Structures
1.
Amino acid sequence: MSHLDVEPLNAGFGALIKGLDLTTELSDEDVEAIREAIDTYSLLCFPEQPMTDEAHLAFTRRLGEPEAEHVTLGKTGKVVWFGTVGNVADDGSRQDSAHVRTRYQRGNEMWHSDSSFRRLPSFVSITHAYEVPGEGGGTCFASMRNAYAGLPADVQATIDPLHVIHDYVFSRSQVAPVDPAHAASLPPIEHRLVRKNPRNGLKSYYVGSHARSIVGWSGIESRRLLDDLLRRATAPEDTYTHRWRAGDTVIWDNRCLLHRGAGYDADRWRRRMRQTRVAGAGPTLEEP
Ligand code: OGA
Ligand code: MN
C-alpha cells in the first residue's frame, strides 16, 4: 500500500493528499504511489503547494509526456505546455465577462473530458490555482467509471463494443466561433465508447460535450444514448465540486472523469489557474 497520506473524499471518488510537496524532486516510489492513487481515486488534490510553472512542468514530466496545448498549436503551430484557466491575462490584467477569452472558456461549463477530441487523448490534467474568486469558480467532477458500474448488465453489453466520435468543432461552435486553423487541426476522432483501466481493469464510458455520435448509429439514436449516459454520470448527488483554494494542485483522470466549470462573476473576481496535461498512452482504439 502507498505510504502517502491519502484521505478519500466521500464522493465515491477523489482523495486529498497532504504532506507531499510536488515542487521537490520526488522519489520514484512517490511517483508510483501517485500513479496508483490516480488509478484508484481518479481525482487527487494536493493543498498548499508552493508551485511555479517550472516545477509544474517538471512534475508533469514525471507522469508522462506533456501534451502541447491545442489552441496555440492549432492556431499558430507553436508548442506550449501550459494553458491558463480563468480571466487573468499574461500581463496580469483581469479580462471581464465580455472578453473573447472569457467567453470562449464558457465552453468549459459543459461536461467534458479534456482533449477527448484528440487522437491521443489526455491521460490526466494537472491544474494549479494561483488566484481564486471569493465566490463561485468551483469545478464539478463526475465519474464515468462509477456510472458504468451502475448500468444494467444489458446496457453494459450493448455499449461495450461501440465506438464514439468526439469532435471539438461540434461542441465548441455551440458557444463561440472556432478559429479556422484551430478547427482544421482537430478533425473528428473515433474512440472506444468503453475504456478499461489497465491497472485495475475497471471500465468506464467515455462521453461528454465533445461526443458527437455513435459509429454506425443514426443521429437521433446516437443523441439519445449519449445524452442518457451523460445524464446518468452527472446526477447531482453523484458529483463532487472542488472549491479551489489558492495553492491547490489538482490532478484528474480524463480517461474516466468528466468535469465542468461551475461559473463565476468574471466582472467582479480574478481567477487564475495554470494547467498542463499528460498525453494518454495511445489511441483508445488500440487499448487492450
Ligand atoms: C479545465 C476546465 C473548468 C473550470 O480546467 O480543464 O475545464 O473553469 N475547467 O473550472
Ligand atoms: Mn477542461
Note: The chain has one domain: 5-262+271-277.
2.
Amino acid sequence: MEFQKRILVTGGAGFIGSHLVRRLVKHYPAYLIVNLDKLTYAGNLENLSDVKEASNYRFEKIDVQSLEGIRNVFQRHAITDVIHLAAESHVDRSIDGPLEFVFTNVVGTVNLLEVARSFWLDSFENRVFHHVSTDEVYGSLGDTGFFTEATPYDPRSPYSASKASSDHFVRAYYHTYGLPVKISNCSNNYGSHHFPEKLIPLMIHNLLNEKPLPVYGNGSNIRDWLWVEDHASAIDVIFHKGKLGESYNVGGLNEWTNLDLVHYLCDLMDRKLGKPEGSSRALIHFVKDRAGHDYRYAIDARKLTEELGWKPSLRFEEGLERTVEWYLRHPEWVEQVTSGAYQAYYQKFYK
Ligand code: NAD
Ligand code: TYD
C-alpha cells in the first residue's frame, strides 16, 4: 500500500508514546506508523497489544543512541516525518545518574535530527520533525504566574537540563539548516499504562497494596495535570497544524498541591475498595524532599487553544476515576512492569 505519510514515532512503547501510537494507527489508516523504541524498563509492548497486528503499524527495537540503527530504520521505511518522544523521563532517576539522560535525551535527539537532515536533504517540503518536550525546561514558578512560550529556559534538574538541551538542538537545526521542526512543551500527564514510579501511579499502586505513600517534603509542591489522551490529541493537532519553527505549550489549567492530590486519591480509593472513609490517608508518609525540588509548574496554553483550537476533553476528577479503574482492572500489567530491575530501584528509594 502507498502510505500518505510514513511517521517515525520514537518512544512509542512508553506511557505517552503508546497512547499517541494507538491514536495515530487508529485515526490515520493512510499513514504508516513506525514505532522505534529501545524497550528500557519504561517501555512495554503490552501497552500496544490492541494495535500490534494493524497493517499500518511496525515496531523497531532500536536505541536512539545508535546513529546507524536510526539510519537503517529511515532507509527501510522511507520515513517522511518524526514525532520524537523517546527519553529517560524520571527526575529522581536523573538525580541518581544523569549520564544516561545526556546520552538518550541529548545525543539521541541530535542523532535523530542528523539522520532526518541528511535523509530529507533533497527537499524538506512536506516533512515535519516534532519534538515532544516538557514544561520543566522553564524551571520553577513561585505562587503566581504561568509558563508561556516566551518564558526563558531555566532547567534545574538533570532531567530538565537534558530536555532543555535537546530543545535547543532542535531549534538550532531549524535556524541553521531549515529543518522543519515543531516543539511542544507539556505539563504533567496522568492516565493508564503509567509506570508506577511517577506520583499518581505510584500512589495508586501503593494504595492497592496498603504500602506507605511517600510524599516528598511537606507536600506543598504544585503540578498542573493533564490526561494523557489529551496530550496525544494536542500532539496530533500541533503535528498537523502547528507552524514550523514554533513551540506550543500544552497544559490542563489544573493545578494541585501534591498533598491535596494524594488526599483526593486516598478518598477515591476508599470508595472504590469499600474501605472506611479516611482510612487510606493513614498510609501517608512524609519523606525527605527531592534535591532541587521545583516548587510549581503551571502552563499558559492559550497559544495552542486560540491558534489551533485544541482544548482538554476531560475534567481531572473524571480522568482520575478512569485511571484508578484501569489500574484496578489490570493488576497483571502492574505486576509485569514492577518486577525485576525496577524492584532494586524501588528498594533504594523507598526503603
Ligand atoms: P516513559 O519513560 O514512559 O517512556 C519513554 C520511552 O522511551 C520508553 O518506551 C523507553 O523504552 C523509550 N526509550 C528510553 N530510552 C530510549 C533510547 N535510548 N532509545 C529508544 N527508546 C528509548 O516516558 P513518557 O512519560 O511517556 O514521556 C515521553 C516523552 O514525553 C518524553 O520525551 C518526556 O520528556 C515527555 N514528557 C513527559 C511528560 C510526563 O508527564 N510524563 C510530560 C511532558 C513531556
Ligand atoms: P513526578 O511524578 O516524579 O513528576 P515531576 O517531578 O516530573 O513533576 O512527581 C510529581 C510531584 O510529586 C513532584 O513534586 C514530586 C512529588 N512526588 C512525591 O511527593 N512522592 C513520590 O513518590 C513521587 C514519585 C513524586
Note: Residues 11, 13-17, 37-40, 42-43, 63-65, 85-89, 104, 108, 132, 134, 163, 186, 188-189, 195 surround nicotinamide-adenine-dinucleotide (ligand 1) (CB under 6 Å).
